[in-house]
UniProtKB/TrEMBL annotation, chains A, B:
Protein's name in the database: Formate--tetrahydrofolate ligase
Keyword annotations: ATP-binding, Ligase, Nucleotide-binding, One-carbon metabolism
Pathway assigned to this chain's UniProt record: One-carbon metabolism; tetrahydrofolate interconversion
GO annotation (BP), single: tetrahydrofolate interconversion
Membership in a protein family: Belongs to the formate--tetrahydrofolate ligase family.
Binding site for ATP: 63-70
Any Pfam family: FTHFS
EC number: 6.3.4.3
Coiled coil, from the record: none
């Protein structure tokens, strides 16, 4: 069996200027990064023109069996184009953390990939590095301010702004900086997040333009004074340099799929610890230059889709016209209690029926938004006909179309029926999108809506710290900001071990982190961490390069 | 008076493919980064073809008055081309540390700049970010190895591999990582260097090709076992992924000067804490595609030029055909005891005579290499005729040509006489380059040669730690590796306050750091630090960007 990277390398790519033409972008709209990557300039894209239709691809809670959400997003876009619908796919940029950690890449798989995959998976056009640098320049300027006399009276014990690195680096979660005596700085506790959790990543993904970017950066709260007053970037007067460091990162990147569909890949917040969607600027450009835009949000529908719908949509001012939920027989079985090793043991319809509860919950939650929902059942060669039929039947009972796809093996050909189903759903959609969270709800009401409606929790338990923060945030006028939940991706609950559809569980709100520039409050639940660690045998050990520059081990 | 960035923006750049043509590079040899930046592919540049002549530009010890070494390098290349000599300038890439710290940019000044200066000064083509990432991925893999059972028995107290960030961040010099309990890692002392001090930067600049890069990376020593045996990257088996992360960074970058001279800008180790030269690959490509190559080494001749001659030349297998030392009346006055504030007080020939001692020492040291030496006296409007004459006279006594240049104000026109003098010197050069350090000398002999001949020190004092390390390194077979001195740039001594030509001083060897992949041992002298700090009013505070993406405050 050919590896993804071998398939990707074997295909002749079209020049990126040719790809751009498919969405009516001229060479003047591009800044080339070699022949196959480009940034799209921000000029000309601010005016309001007619927008295309938008399809959000999401999934059940991820399992080690693999669901193939990016693969389906890419293959669906290819299938739409193959069916005569002008379509662009808009995705997030991979973080190096998981690329070197567990995943080995995030550019689809099999016959549905975006290319050049080595570049996209490694440094790409440098956006994430620019974000790391902007984030850490702010940290250096904060610590320097304190060292140089601390005019603003920043309390070193109350700095909430953390440093970042775009790697899975457990040892940096909790650190002490500024050690070594008076000429080395002021000692304080600090920690590193992974870059994709940085507020600057969130801001870049939510900003409308360069002006909005700078305005949001100026509003970032980095900590508190000794008098517990919040300190913003504008108090430090460094929003100019932080924004300047993002001058190129704010421009969306254009690449292509293996079937030469334009792919806009921009911004990459994780959906478990951040808001999980690609950038508003990229989505808007895609919508202005295509009849159909396929986009995805991170992890399962409880995380990425919820944040897409409740955080991104209000700012994008456009709701999806259809939502595709990706599931596989294998992953439904795991939600039904089968172990990864036992997946090979053949047909197991009872397990699928049990595991379907996870998919059913996501269907229910998404139906509440009044957007058409379609299940994409992503085939594996080991699936039996009865297994596939069982899932279709259960979807039928929920009045949801369930379409088999074989995109990984067959590319667009494996997604033609899904494309047709999606277009049909959009054309009959009555466009009565309804948000989950009404305006004017309190922090606790918002959390209750998400935890109960989306996760299916029975209760919400707040730590003493969280309760104090709620009071404090209300006094500071932050009480009505949207909530961005940070929760394990593996379960509907905040306990990664509870697969399927857990019932009778509480969501534990440990702590809040204000992201005032991004315009939301992060709620940390359970034991979720904003800096992943590496496994005993990380993907990094497999990655190699030969003397001609050919990379292996990315998949 | 126009700011550098205004001059740079006002000039119409040529397309980079047009620039490339001037050095017989076709579009196929390039990977474009927009219209005005490109990477040069590594294909076709490995075979030995006729090489051009090489001019090394260096300077006296830097003062706050400014010497203009990059400006002279760029302007000399422009003047060479204007005089009919096909010339390329090969420089280092700026680090964001000083750009946001004290310098605000490192792309020349006035009428002699490389462009696009905003891009080059900020993230450029991402090389330094790739190096930071490769460096820190190795750190994460080391800490993960220990956390996951520590099969190699790495002693956490004896890890010499530090993390890096390409910023001036004092608070990261000494840190404790791995805090927070058993699931967060193993606590240990650590520290961050600035990226340009990373061994990976040194390796990238010394590697011959991708294969050599990987081989050198595999030889990096990251620390010691509990039994005090060195641990290399190859023991961790991660040279593949570290090298893969550098797949683009190893390719030299092509930009242009304001007068459209090709400028290869690649690699950027500092000369005070690292080896201070641009990459061997870039220099070789330049030499293969130009009749003359102007290159520079960092800081004063005691640091950058010494390392260029003693570390880079043996690996490049080519010595410079001429050396230009840059000085200004203002900086000579400061070496003669005048304060920055008092520079405005007008003519002061006695101070210049005193300060000339600094220049004289560098002339002496460089003469010993048997390469023609030329002084470039870089004019300021405040210089008087008698002051300029005094310096010329003193150079005359040393039998060294001293040429006035007005490159900052006049571009190539201000460097035509320098160009002529350089070409004359090269044409009459007898090519009997003699290295300072004979083969087979011990660590202490090497240090003595550099400290006494280059710095003019009388004695060398070793700390107890350094003496122990010498013994240890001899046992490990590292005793004959070149020494890369880490020393303040401001003085010939290791005390930044001793300007001019200090006499009767000792060089204090505090500690060694083995850089086995780079192939040298760093000797830390005095109080030199491998992570700079920010000043009270860093350049970052001046940097801004408007809503159209125009950057200000880089100069």
């Amino acid at each position: 069996m050919k590896k993804d990277i071998e398939i990707a390398r074997a295909i002749e790519k079209e020049k990126i200027v040719t790809i751009a033409k498919k969405m009516n972008l001229t060479p003047d709209d591009l800044e080339l990064y070699g022949n196959y990557k480009a940034k799209i300039t921000l000029e000309k894209h601010t005016e309001s023109i007619e927008q295309g239709k938008m399809v959000l691809v999401t999934a059940i809670n991820p399992t080690p069996a693999g669901e193939g959400k990016s693969t389906v997003s890419i293959g669906l876009a290819d299938a739409m184009n193959a069916s005569g619908y002008q379509t662009v796919v808009a995705l997030r940029e991979p973080s190096l953390g998981p690329t070197l950690g567990i995943k080995g890449g995030a550019t689809g798989g099999g016959q549905a990939q975006i290319v050049p995959m080595e570049d996209i998976n490694l440094h790409f056009t440098g956006d994430i590095h620019a974000i790391s640098t902007a984030n850490n320049a702010l940290s250096a300027l904060i610590d320097n301010h304190i060292y140089q006399g601390n005019e603003l009276q920043i309390d070193p014990r109350r700095i909430t702004w953390k440093r970042v690195v775009d790697l899975n680096d457990r040892a940096l979660r909790h650190v002490v900086v500024g050690l070594g005596g008076p000429i080395q700085g002021v000692p304080r506790e600090d920690g590193f997040d992974i870059t994709v959790a940085s507020e600057i990543m969130a801001i870049l993904c939510l900003a409308k333009d360069l002006k909005d970017l700078k305005e949001r950066i100026s509003q970032i709260v980095i900590g508190y004074t000794y008098d517990k007053e919040p300190i913003s970037v504008k108090d430090l007067k460094v929003e100019g340099v932080i924004t300047a460091l993002l001058k190129d990162a704010i421009k969306p990147n254009l690449v292509q799929t293996l079937e030469h569909t334009p792919a806009i890949v921009h911004g990459g917040p994780f959906a478990n610890i951040a808001h999980g969607c690609n950038s508003i600027i990229a989505t808007k450009i895609a919508l202005q230059h295509a009849d159909y835009v396929i986009t995805e949000a991170g992890f399962g529908a409880d995380l990425g889709a919820e944040k897409f719908l409740d955080i991104k949509v209000p700012q994008l001012e456009k709701a999806p016209d259809a939502i595709v939920i990706v599931a596989t027989i294998r992953s439904l079985k795991m939600h039904g209690g089968v172990s990864l090793a036992d997946l090979a043991k053949g047909e197991n319809i009872p397990a699928i029926r049990d595991g379907f509860s996870n998919l059913a919950k996501h269907i229910d939650s998404l139906k509440a938004y009044h957007v058409p929902v379609i299940v994409s059942l992503n085939e594996f060669t080991t699936d039996t006909k009865s297994e596939l039929e069982a899932v279709k039947e259960m979807c039928d009972k929920q009045a949801i179309p369930c379409v088999e796809t074989s995109i990984w093996a067959n590319g667009s050909k494996g997604g033609l029926e899904l494309a047709k189903t999606v277009v049909d759903a959009i054309q009959t959609n009555t466009n009565d999108y309804t948000p989950l969270i009404p305006e004017g709800t309190s922090m606790q009401e918002k959390i209750a809506l998400i935890a109960k409606n989306t996760y299916g929790a029975t209760t919400i338990e707040y730590s003493a710290k969280a309760l104090t923060q709620i009071k404090q945030y209300q006094e500071l006028g932050w009480g009505e900001l949207p909530i961005c939940m940070a929760k394990t991706q593996y379960s509907l609950s905040d306990n990664p071990k509870l697969l399927g559809r857990p019932t009778d569980f509480a969501i534990h709100i440990r702590e809040f982190v204000p992201k005032i520039g991004a315009g939301f409050i992060v709620a940390l639940t359970g034991n979720v961490m904003t800096m992943p660690g590496l496994t005993k045998e990380p993907a990094a050990l497999e990655i190699d390069i030969d003397e001609n520059g050919n990379i292996s081990g990315l998949f």
